[in-house]
Amino acid sequence: MTLKTGRGAAAPPFIVMDVIAAANARQASLAPGAPHVIRMEVGQPGTGAPAGAIAAAEAAMRSGQALGYTESFGLASLRARIAGHIADWYGTAVPPARIAVTVGASGAFPLAFLAAFDPGDAVAMATPFYPPYVNILTALGMVPQMLPTGPETRFQPTIAMLEALDPRPAGLIVASPCNPAGTMLAPDELAGIARWCHANGVRLISDEIYHGLHYETPIATAAAFSPSAVVVNSFSKYFSMTGWRIGWLVLPDDLVRPVECLAQNLFISAPHIAQVAAEAAFDCGAELQANVARYRRSRDLLLAALPGAGFPRLCPAEGAFYLYADISDRTNDSREFCARMLNEAGIAASPGVDFDRARGHRFVRFSYCGPEADMAEAAHRLAAWTQSSPR
Fold it and tell me: Of the chain's two ends, which shows fewer C-beta atoms within 10 Å, N or C?
């Protein structure tokens, strides 16, 4: 008997997770004392949660208080702190009632997509893109609509691209800073896109999880420019809390109750202990800014070193902690190239085909959020590997 499987069973892999597994296996196979694998494949800060967040979690666990279900939208005190954070960073007032605490940004996306779109709806996004956008939309029966971008628009969408779409999509996803290119929309560009979407009945989903990790270009939130936009954010990147699985949504009024009902049924609530730690993380600004300074130093080092190490074509690294490198002069198979780089140079990086299925075979993404010493060592290894590796 052959049993039916659902559309979700056909979801493609998030290839970077396969690279993580390969890097783990490579590291485990090394002899004692051999040079370790340098991890540049995943956007996981090497610092861990800030000390104040860990202390708050420890105190909560030792206090004897029940750490159980919270309201589906999270602790009232955490939602108030998030609202205060938005006011401090952007000068934008968002009532806590419009904020939903989620199981990371990964838990926020299906809530937003299910509440905003129907099966068959087209949702546009720039390519290259964060792979789970497409994979989640596809699993839910929605239709990703690609907007091919390049260096001429800093790998970001434009209003001209949106005007050319016929018919208009039901939604648009933007990310600034974006993954994998690390480029940003200037505040006036984001404002223009947000206002265009609202005026044309296109639901804007603004991925702002890399806010705080920006270097020259200022940040802005879509919530300041559109009453219908959905904002996704997370404690994983700037707050360095990936494993705590805690994020948030800023919702427009019409999606508050629909998202709350979905959250009640799909997740019940984000982990109570993670919410306690997240609230305390807002008091750790000095430590978090020191992390950003470290990423900036690694970015500057790699931007200076990689062209001489055989990677001369790099995207502008305006934010996040990624360098997206065009390797078309060296290969037409980014997966095979990354496998060789791992096995021969001991450096794990992500093949561009994960982020752009049509053109990503000629790109590689390097993450520079690991230890500074590793990033410096990576530059030396890549230079040596390029000299010894045939093109």
Answer: N
Residue that the structure tokens 């950003």 belong to = 292
This prediction's pTM:
0.95
What would the pLDDT profile of 44-66 be if each residue is shown by its tens digit?
A: 998 899 999 999 999 999 998 88
Name which of 258, 282, 225, 223 is nearest 73 in CA terms: 258
To the nearest 10°, the Cα dihedral for 277, 283, 289, 294?
-40
CATH number of 51-284: 3.40.640.10
Given a cut of 70, whether residue 391 has pLDDT beyond it is no
Tell me which long-range contacts 13-21 makes (C-beta under 8 A, separation of at least 24).
14/131, 14/132, 14/135, 14/354, 15/131, 15/335, 15/350, 15/351, 15/353, 15/354, 16/41, 16/42, 16/131, 16/350, 16/354, 19/338, 19/342, 19/348, 19/349, 19/350, 19/351, 20/348
CATH of 10-49+286-386, one of 3.40.640.10, 1.25.40.10, 3.90.1150.10, 3.30.300.10: 3.40.640.10
Q: Cβ distance 358 to 48 under 8 Å?
A: no
Query: Domain map of the chain by residue range?
Result: 10-49+286-386, 51-284
**Residues β-bridged to residue 247:** 102, 234
